[in-house]
Q: What sequence folds into this?
């Protein structure tokens, strides 16, 4: 446990000394800021009351594009760099277990991811306090899309951590995880074909856009939670196995 | 402290270490020598709990390196060759991170880090980023890291590589000093260093142990160990006949012959033949102007044992 906390702190600190992290933070806050500003203006001028700002922000092209791009970038170096620099030897000759290393690295990226998306929540809070009229807050509509974002992001980051342990080349790791994430993302579109009902239901299960749509309307369903938590566990388990095997089968 | 039994390590289709056995007792400083590619680093990686042995058992402090890997790692300080470090961390920050990771109690971290910084002369660079340090400083950061949790056993893979003569000397003194309280296994190509620091030497070649003994005993093993070089005023063939008849003399070699003869006398099995040779010279009444016992160096041993 102590190893986990020590490593988590170190990994998180490592993000904030790398220029890549600041580029991701900047890009993310630009996208969030712009779409927030755009949709609030659009909603006010057109007097739209059917959906929330989060619904508009989290279901558009810019959102998905940013999410799919940023996860491979955040995770590509997480193990690859250790293998390339040889520091993995220092790490794995310290008294720490493989799962501590994997979990510490994963939660550091997840925390960084949450920090990168925090402007979205802060904007909402700011708008609430800044507006002259008191707004009726629907917590479900604010919290659920963010929970869904954390689940999807957590799943994509777990895929990224897994591809990073496979290679010592950061670029290969990023391309691999991008390809896997993109295929999973696109799988949801297959539902529009002429397949029978049961196949369509199965595909719906994988459709991130459908899940986000439901959550953004403030409806909580357990399916995505089960799906993503098991997906995260699966990829982190694979990562731990590969890390162990790389050492034992060398 | 270290027990290696029938240890073999194979990499895909290539045997790096073949069926070796050795032991290191607590308190020993053991030099691990061998040409490049002999299997030194592989053996050290296995001892550090990083790689598992393909066959045989390797135990450190009574714990198996595979089954109780974590227990082994708690008790060793390992310094790999090429010293991989996190280049974007500061020296101080890195050492504190490593101390915490290796389970040093929170209250003791500051004290331990200060101590290893002092011992490895890292005080001047404690605030510097590791990536900007010279090779010598990085080596010392690695050494400080290896000993930060005060381990029972230090495994140092070429700790003095890339250091200048001053730094080599200070690291050597440090190792000698550490040897008072720790068990140390170190590999190096600087043989004079081994002669000065190590209580025992293990020479490995092509994955096999060629010799394991004290430096003194090893130098007696090779031809030329304890040989005597004399320069006497005597006929060389006569002198040769007389010398070879002496007990414990293995061979006699004439180096130069004129009025004065330079002769080299080789003893059997490292026997001391100084008295008998001098006795002969005195009895024969030869004039003598050079008498010298040549000790074989560790380098001679190394070359003789590891040549193909």
A:
């Amino acid at each position: 446990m102590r190893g986990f906390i020590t490593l988590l702190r170190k990994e998180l600190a490592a993000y904030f000394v790398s220029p890549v992290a600041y580029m991701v933070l900047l890009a993310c806050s630009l996208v969030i800021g712009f779409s927030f500003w755009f949709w609030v203006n659009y909603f006010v001028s057109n007097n739209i009351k059917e959906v929330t700002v989060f619904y508009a922000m989290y279901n558009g092209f810019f959102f998905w594009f940013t999410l799919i791009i940023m996860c491979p970038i955040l995770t590509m170096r997480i193990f690859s760099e250790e293998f390339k620099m040889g520091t993995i030897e220092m790490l794995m000759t310290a008294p720490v277990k493989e799962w501590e290393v994997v979990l510490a690295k994963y939660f550091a990226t997840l925390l960084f991811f949450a920090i990168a998306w925090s402007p979205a929540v802060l904007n909402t809070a700011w708008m609430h306090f800044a507006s002259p009229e008191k707004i009726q807050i629907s917590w479900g509509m604010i919290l659920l899309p963010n929970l869904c974002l954390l689940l999807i992001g957590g799943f994509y980051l777990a895929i990224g951590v897994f591809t990073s342990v496979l290679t010592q080349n950061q670029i290969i790791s990023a391309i691999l995880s991008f390809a896997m994430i993109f295929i999973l993302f696109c799988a949801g579109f297959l539902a529009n074909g002429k397949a029978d009902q049961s196949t369509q239901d199965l595909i719906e299960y994988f459709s991130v856009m459908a899940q986000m749509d439901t959550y953004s309307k403030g409806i909580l369903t357990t399916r995505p939670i089960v799906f993503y938590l098991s997906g995260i566990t699966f990829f982190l388990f694979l990562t731990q196995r590969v890390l162990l095997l790389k050492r034992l089968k060398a | 402290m270290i027990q290696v039994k029938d240890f073999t390590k194979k990499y895909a289709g290539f045997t790096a270490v073949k069926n070796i056995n050795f032991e290191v007792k607590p308190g020993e400083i053991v030099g691990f020598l061998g040409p490049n590619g002999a299997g030194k680093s592989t053996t050290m990686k296995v001892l550090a709990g990083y790689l598992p042995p393909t066959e045989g058992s390797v135990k450190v402090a009574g714990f198996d390196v595979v089954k109780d890997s974590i227990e082994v790692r708690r008790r060793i300080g390992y310094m790999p060759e090429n010293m991989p470090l996190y280049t974007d961390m500061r020296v101080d920050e890195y050492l504190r991170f490593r101390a915490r990771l290796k389970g040093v109690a929170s209250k003791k971290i500051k004290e331990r880090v200060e101590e290893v910084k002092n011992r490895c002369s890292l005080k001047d660079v404690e605030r510097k980023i590791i990536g900007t340090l010279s090779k010598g400083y990085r080596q010392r950061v690695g050494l400080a890291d290896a000993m930060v949790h005060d381990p029972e056993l230090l495994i140092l893979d070429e700790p003095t590589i890339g250091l200048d003569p001053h730094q080599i000397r200070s690291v050597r003194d440090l190792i000698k000093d550490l040897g008072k309280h720790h068990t140390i296994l170190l590999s190096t190509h600087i043989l004079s260093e081994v002669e000065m620091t190590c209580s025992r030497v293990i020479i490995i070649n092509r994955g096999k142990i060629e010799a394991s003994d004290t430096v003194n005993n090893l130098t007696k093993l090779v031809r030329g160990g304890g040989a005597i070089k004399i320069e006497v005023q005597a006929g060389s063939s006569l002198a040769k006949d007389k010398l070879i008849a002496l007990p414990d003399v293995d061979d006699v070699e004439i180096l130069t012959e004129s009025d004065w003869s330079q002769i080299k006398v080789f003893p059997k099995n490292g026997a001391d033949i100084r008295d008998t040779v001098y006795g002969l010279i005195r009895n024969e009444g030869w004039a003598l102007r050079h008498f010298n016992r040549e000790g074989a160096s560790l380098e001679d041993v190394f070359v003789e044992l590891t040549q193909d």
